[in-house]
Amino acid sequence: xxxxxxxxxxxxxxxxxxxxxxxxxxxxxxxxxxxxxxxxxxxxxxxxxxxxxxxxxxxxxxxxxxxxxxxxxxxxxxxxxxxxxxxxxxxxxxxxxxxxxxxxxxxxxxx
Length: 111
Prior knowledge:
Helix content is 0%, strand content 24%. By secondary structure, the chain is mainly β. The model has no long low-confidence stretch (mean pLDDT 83). It has a domain at 18-88.
């Protein structure tokens, strides 16, 4: 579990994530072959390398990443978006019965 602080962030705060493809070598983190960000403007050709949705069964936010660059030829990209999957929670409801309350989920699809 990754915990991003234990205090309140000001309204409008944006938190981003990234994935470094093929960065683990000989027990060390390296620069890898490329880095993919949740801010598409930072990705090659402004490609979207992640998905974000609300899980319909547990009301949590789920983020997934594709490690192969979407700017590569389609024959090379597997488009599975299962190379990194994690749940984002504000821990307001430990039983996961209600949606996370600290996030604006207005435009996030529910699956």
